[in-house]
Every structure is written in structure tokens, then in C-alpha cells.
Amino acid sequence: MNIIEQMEQENMRHDIPDFRAGDTVKVHIRIIEGNKERTQLFQGVVIRRRKGIMGASVTVRKISHGVGVEKTFPLCSPRVDKIELVSEGRVRRSRLYYLRNLRGKAARIREKGIN
Questions:
Q1: Does residue 43 contact residue 26 with C-beta atoms inside 8 Å?
Q2: Rounded distance, CA 39 to CA 51, Å?
Q3: Helix H or strand E segment including 31
Q4: Do 75 and 46 touch, CB atoms closer than 8 A?
Q5: pLDDT single digits (tens) 23-52
Q6: Are 53 and 10 in contact (CB under 8 A)?
Q7: Percent of the chain surpassing pLDDT 90
Q8: I need a surface site. Which of 54, 66, 95, 103 has the fewest CB within 10 A?
């Protein structure tokens, strides 16, 4: 193992749950405003997950006041406090960009069940 891979392994986070595109997650983000720090919650559907060691990121989409909002979070960032898995979705793709064009009930994702 070279030096870069060794440093990536040391700085890697191990508290990230196993999730994939289509799952609903809650991302707790630490936000600093002036000299105060608070945690903000961003809950939405994972439309993209980029794999990697230190370059891993996840794009989460939610609807806020009728407007679609997407945020991309680096998974190994110290700003990301924690990620909680809310529900698992049943999708057949790894990139759910088609959700950008859907509205209302058409944008629903089936929940992963027994059958």
C-alpha cells in the first residue's frame, strides 16, 4: 500500500450506514454561523451515490415548498455529522435523475418489501 492509500484508510469514516440510490436518508450537517454552531437536518431521496474511499459523495433530493432541492454531500467530510437510513427504496437504476422531471405521486418510489 502506498502512502496516499494509507492516509485515506486512516481518515476514512466507518459510521456511514449501507445505503444506495432510491433510499430515503436523513443527513445531519454541522453549520457554523458566526461564532455559533448548529446541526441542520436534510431529509430526502438518494438520487446518486459516488463510490470511492475519500472521494465518495451522495446527492440527496427533497421537495421544499414545491421546489426541488438537491445537495451533494462528501461522505468523509467533517461537516457531515451523521447519516441515518429512514427507508429503503426499490429501484432498478443507480442514478435517479429522471425524478427531476416528475411531480407529485409520479415521483414516488416503492418501498423495499418482502416480495
A1: yes
A2: 25
A3: strand 24-33
A4: no
A5: 999 999 999 999 999 999 999 999 999 987
A6: no
A7: 59
A8: 66
